[in-house]
Amino acid sequence: MSYKRIYPQLFISPLLRMIERFFIDHKRIEEKRPISLPNRLTVLRLTSIPLVLLFLSIEGRVGSFFAAFFFSLAFLTDILDGFIARRYQSVTALGKFLDPLADKLLVIVTLIKLLELQRVPGWIVILMVIRELIITGLRGIAAKEGVIIQANRFGKYKTTIQAISITALCLHYEFLGMDFHRIGIATLWIALIFTLGSGIIYIFKVRSLFFESN
Fold it and tell me: What is the overall mean pLDDT for the chain?
């Protein structure tokens, strides 16, 4: 075996074991706490919403930069809490309620604020909000009937593209020679396609509930 293969293993393997040990120890600590780490990250995401609104209310590049920073940070906590909850089986009833609520509030409230600042077209915001309300209602009906429908690929792509778009629209101004408002609008159109597409797919998945009830 060559040294080129041995040296990376000497450093990477212990590092991976340290990371694994950290999460194992953390899981033991979490079991003794009333609120798990994923739920605390979700609460952190909820508390970031006022910060995004606050900095968007401040005119100029600095306010827009920090609004984008806190929005993107909140999006990263969404990825992290989902990973931890699934990886270490710390999914709770509270988390199932708070996580989608925090996601929707973060996106909808920020979009409404951006609409107030005239950074996004009103009709796109209306379509996105209506889609979220319809899917939330259908998901509640499905859960009541004991049917759990997993998020489809379109929905996952929608979430990521939507986050990129809103972050760029929060930045708004030119940074590093890039016009983030144009980038935000372009990706918002893509996000709209995935938003409507994933919504239609979800409606087709739950339509049997209504036909069977009739």
Answer: 79
